[in-house]
Amino acid sequence: MRTLEWDSSKQQLQMIDQRALPSKFELIYLDTYPAVTQSIKNMTVRGAPAIGVAAAFGMVLAAIHSTANDVEAMRRDLTVAAEELGASRPTAVNLPWALKRMLRTASGSFESVQDLRDELLAEAQRMADEDVALNCQIAAFGAELIDDGDTIIHHCNTGALATVDWGTALGVIRLAHEQGKNIHVLVDETRPRLQGARLTAWELSQYKVPYDIISDNAAGHFLRTGQVNKVFFGGDRVARNGDVANKIGSYMLALAANTNHVPVYSVIPTSTIDLELKNGDEIPIEERDQDEVLNLQFRGKPATPANASARNPAFDVTPHELFTALVTEEGVVYPPFENNLQKIMQDK
Amino acid sequence: MRTLEWDSSKQQLQMIDQRALPSKFELIYLDTYPAVTQSIKNMTVRGAPAIGVAAAFGMVLAAIHSTANDVEAMRRDLTVAAEELGASRPTAVNLPWALKRMLRTASGSFESVQDLRDELLAEAQRMADEDVALNCQIAAFGAELIDDGDTIIHHCNTGALATVDWGTALGVIRLAHEQGKNIHVLVDETRPRLQGARLTAWELSQYKVPYDIISDNAAGHFLRTGQVNKVFFGGDRVARNGDVANKIGSYMLALAANTNHVPVYSVIPTSTIDLELKNGDEIPIEERDQDEVLNLQFRGKPATPANASARNPAFDVTPHELFTALVTEEGVVYPPFENNLQKIMQDK
Prior knowledge:
The structure is a homodimer. Chain A is α/β, with parallel strands linked by helices.
């Protein structure tokens, strides 16, 4: 089963509800584009590649429910929908990338509104299928970087749940395991939403990859004492120079790894690369609701004082010089990143 | 009220139960030394200075309940108690430091077992009073390092609760605030036991110091984007060369601060300095029960898969080169730390 799937008979987008895992495996069904916008905002679906494809299906729903009688009017409805969907989360570039691609599809010539609808659905389906194929290609390149006996720190969730299927960084780890390499994963719990403790641990359990969950702040200890061979995480937006915005905590992890001569890899489809941005300082960083940090329990009681406040940036930027390489479906990209990223993007 | 206080009439050690905060302010009363050992192990009392003084009162309780009829026999009972108390937690050196001091007191000449008991109680009381006085002295030196307008990241809890009263790093921050400096604290929540989110936030609320709680992994974002002026934390054991073992996460925080040219201070009484250890690699690092990491809730449900496992090192080592200075009751110690630490310890 995919993280998100189109149900043709019901004309609905089916999703795994990632907020319910690991205690419950629940599916939800969305039949309007505002429902898709909401599911991205509240992180029912998360992970840069997954939210890109979810938004594409959101555009399909916008077209289905548009009351426009001609193609031009429907295009106007689609532009409105794209704006709403695009404003749901600011950091990952896969979201505007997917919406641009859907709008470009809509800009073709169509005999009828139904033809436009059909083509948008076909395009969204292609994007979903491509995502799975890309991830398999990424995994093949990335698994080459993993050696038998490696202990790997992984941050956030980049598995099947973060994509349509298979995953990016976690897909690399999964393939290395399936190749028979004896590996062990230290799973950063990834506060505040615990995507590591909840989702990555759940996926690794399914794949039977040996792992231990650690507090995010413990990674430095394992790195400094020589217990880690590699660090892998995903990426939500990569600037032209190779700076990577990814889940909060990626920067401190990459810095501690680099300082201790442990290789650091960001694993990304090329749809995550934003050549329009000079460097990571230009990437918008989402700050989410403070309750995500404050809603903590300790021994069954609230862990923070009643009047407490919090700051909650959801992403940070890891400067390119901390990466050993970026792993894409076009191959493993080494420094100098600015040249080499432009090269693979030109070849596409 | 002090974090721990001797009740002479009941011959009990009274403590604030730090596991119940911030939702409940509860006192507990210990009347045997194994109960004190247990309270240190299960972190009813925590913080290097506080557990040192708690252990000293544990020795008083051992003397009170010893059935020895002569001083020599009581000394043997005290040696057994010191071993048990000393084994409760391995990393902080204040614990063996306090026990050694109590055993040295016991090695004097006494007319009767009651004289020995009285002198041990007097010595433990002196250690408690000295701790408060030292912390005030530390705060006076440390507050000089804080400027009006500073934003400060603080890790774990180093306040009144971590000591007999007043605190170390948090005592510095509190004094700077009381001096009228306009400061803001970013409180690392400090997974897994949340001493920051629970205890430091609670103390700062009492002192009316403005603060926001952050996930530990978010510190790097605030440091890299120039939003932080200083980093302060405590210390559980300082090696001869200035390497500091402190609560897990201190290393990654110090590294991110140092990389971004933000000064880093470890605030410690000199009882935390262990000149016998060449460097931080010789400091024993406690690994605590994995349930401290795994017992997480997300939206009211277990956040980790049922079969998950975890690693839980409770401390890490920050190499001396990442510190701007160490703040002690003898003054602010700058590099070269090896020379300057030995100098202040000789002067004592």
